[in-house]
Each structure stands twice: as structure tokens, then as C-alpha cells.
Amino acid sequence: MSSTSPKPFDKSDYVSNVWKEGIFGGKVLFCTGGSGSICSAQTKAIVYLGANAAIIGRNVEKTERMAAEIATARPGAKVIAIGGVDVRDANALKEAADRTVRELGSLDFTIAGAAGNFLSPMSQLSPNAFKSVIDIDVLGSYNTAKATLPYLMQSAEKYKHDGKGSARNGTGGRIIFVSATIHYTGLPLQTHVSAAKAAVDSLSHAIAIEYGPLGITSNVIAPGPISGTEGMDRLSKSDADSLAKSKKNIPLGRWGEKKEIADATVFLFSDAANYVNGQISVIDGASWRTSGGSPGGSWEYPDFLLSGAKVEGVKGGKSSKL
């Protein structure tokens, strides 16, 4: 375990006051990509509201550090870090799910949030780079579902209800996939991610259809541009002009907050969403309805593509030739 002290939990950053404390008492969340900025916020909200959790990541130290931070959300919370896990490895994910149940007692909720991304036009996108994102996002989401569905089935049976009134013992047997909106219109520099997230959406819908009769709900959360996240730090330019252009394209005039993604997560796992299944919750301020054809910032469409220039000025650029 890292010797670094965990960052104190600030409720206002991760969950709204509208939710009743303890609504997820006795429940356990399994989250891939749990050390990332969006998934950690989702997990903090669920833990604050009573659940224990296991977060899964590739980087051992980062995963352990984030687990310690999430545990500060609620006195007595148990959050285990399962690091060194590649979501492309189905056996590793099954072992992580089994360990979660052994150590925490159950597995009631799943968030499939591990993902990979960078900016690159197709002319500079190698087949290997394309495959890497497909494998992490699509195969990783599938492996996460396969590893946890047997336990989610048990939870759904334990906490089943008919929709009349509130579920007395809470909810269970729910899975959320973290997707995106870029494939709704198509977006330059994001061919690989567009293909991957479209497949993730379809995977969630298939689970909703096949496992709905067993009481499981499967839904998607599609975030737009969210402040303070690794994705926006890596994939957007930080100069004032680029930021202003990016926010101008969003009808609400601002980037979203991690808390707004976490609140959607709480809703989908809560008693309020008992009949929500096979749906996509877009949390983006209507950004996707105005951003089609341009990745935002200073990459003007189609001028940037016609120039043949490499993506520069961001941490998440990629320039591998075909």
C-alpha cells in the first residue's frame, strides 16, 4: 500500500444532497477503471451511500492509492484495490470478481469503465493502435460482464421486486457501461473510439435483452466533456482560446462535473430506476447535438484533416503510420 495519505473526501464533488444516505447499505460494487477520474467519482458516490467496493486497475500503486481515497467517503467503508489486472485478460477479471465476493461478501453492482483513447486521423492510425482500443473498450467490457454476471444474477434474485412500492432490502443485479457520444454523429480523430463505443452500447443492449428475464438491468452512461478528468486533460488543449471554443459549442455553455456522472450512476443503481433497462443516459449538456464533425478546440473541420498535420499540443496524441 502506498504511504501517501489519501485525499480527504469532499461530498460536494461526488454526490448531490438529494440522495438518502444508506440506500446502498450492504451492497458491493465492482468497478473496472476504478482508479480513473470518472469511475472513481462514481464509486465514491456509491460508497458514500452505504456500499463497499472493489476497484480494478492495471497500475497497482495508483489503484491502491485511489482505493484508500474512496474509503474516506464513509466511516467503516471497505474498498479493496485489485491492481495489476488487464481487462483484456478474462481469467484475471474472473479472479478479481471471485476475490471481491470472498472478501466483501457479494457482488451487486458492476461498472465497466476501463477504456483507452488518443487523438489520431485514420491516415496516421495503425491497425495495431485501432485494435488496442477495441480490445480494451469492447473485449474489456465483455470480459467484465462475463466475470460478474453470475454474481449479479444471484444479487438480482436476492433483491428482486415487482416494481410496486420500494424494494425493502434495496436493489441488486445491475450493470452500467461507461461509453461516449462521439459515435452518434461521427468525429474526426476518433475513428477507433467511435467504433469501440458503438460496440459497447450494443453489448449493453444485448445484456439487457438476454438477462432482463433474470432480473438484471444493463444500461449505459455516456459522458460528454467533463472537467477535471484524465480524458479532458489528455485530449483537449488547455489554452484559453481552445477552451472557450470548446465550451461555446455546448448548449449549457460549460463542461460537466464528475458529480453529474456520479449522480446518474446513483439513479441507475437505485430504487428509482427499477424499470430502466437497455437505455443510454447521455450526460453532456446536449454537447453532441452541436459538435458533429468537429473535435472542438482549435481543430477546425475539415481544414485540419486536409492539412495532413499531426495532432500536437495534447498529451493523448497518436501518430502511428499505416
Task: Describe this entry's structure for a reader.
- By secondary structure, the chain is an alpha/beta fold.
- The protein has nine helices and seven strands.
- Helices cover 39% and strands 11% of the residues.
- The protein has helices at 37-48, 60-71, 90-104, 127-158, 191-211, 230-235, 240-248, 258-269, 303-307; strands spanning 28-32, 52-56, 79-82, 109-112, 174-178, 217-223, 280-283.
- Helix 2 links the parallel strand 2 and strand 3.
- It has a seven-stranded parallel sheet, sandwiched between helices.
- Helix 4 packs parallel to helix 5 (191-211).
- The protein is globular, with a radius of gyration of 19 Å.
- The relative contact order is 0.15.
- It comes from Neodothiora populina.
- Pfam families: adh_short_C2.
- Keywords: NADP, Oxidoreductase.
Q: Layout of helices and strands, plus pairs?
A:
Layout: E1 28-32, H1 37-48, E2 52-56, H2 60-71, E3 79-82, H3 90-104, E4 109-112, H4 127-158, E5 174-178, H5 191-211, E6 217-223, H6 230-235, H7 240-248, H8 258-269, E7 280-283, H9 303-307
Parallel strand pairs: 1-2, 1-4, 2-3, 4-5, 5-6, 6-7
Helix pairs in contact: 1-8, 3-4, 4-5
Name its key features.
alpha/beta, 39% helix, oxidoreductase, DECR2-like
